[in-house]
Amino acid sequence: MMPDKCSVSEEGKQCVNPPEFIVSIVDGKDEYMFGLTCKKHQHIVTGKLTILQNEGKMHSGKISFTPVKSIGTDCIHGDTDDLVQIDLKKSN
After folding, report:
1. Which of the residues 6, 66, 74, 84 could staple to 38 if both were Cys, CB 3.0 to 4.6 A apart?
2. R_g of the chain, CA atoms, integer Å
3. What is the rounded distance in angstroms from the CA atom of residue 87 to the CA atom of residue 72?
4. What is the pLDDT tens value at each position of the chain, 92 positions in all?
């Protein structure tokens, strides 16, 4: 499972956009996942990672943005016997 929101926070507020890219750093034949970002924050993430790489705080290598793909499956089946009904009643 992946988070349903972009990994970027601005001014202490978490971005509410869905992730569009998996951000990773490719170093030779190794790849290190960094996080998820939306299209709006792609440039900001690139800038921040470049700064961290220049300071030696992050692996050097090519910053890669791989589009997130939705995958569906029909391997899980359910029927009415699988459902549980919960009735909430306010007690007085």
Report:
1. 6
2. 20
3. 31
4. 678 889 898 888 999 999 999 999 998 899 988 889 999 999 999 999 999 999 999 888 999 999 998 766 666 666 666 655 555 555 55
6 closest CA partner among 48, 42, 51, 53: 42
Q: What are the E-state strand segments in the chain?
A: 9-10, 13-14, 21-27, 30-37, 62-67
Phi, psi of 10 (to 5 degrees): -120, 125
Cβ atoms within 10 Å, residue 25: 19
Provide the CA 41 distance to its chain's centre, in angstroms.
Answer: 12
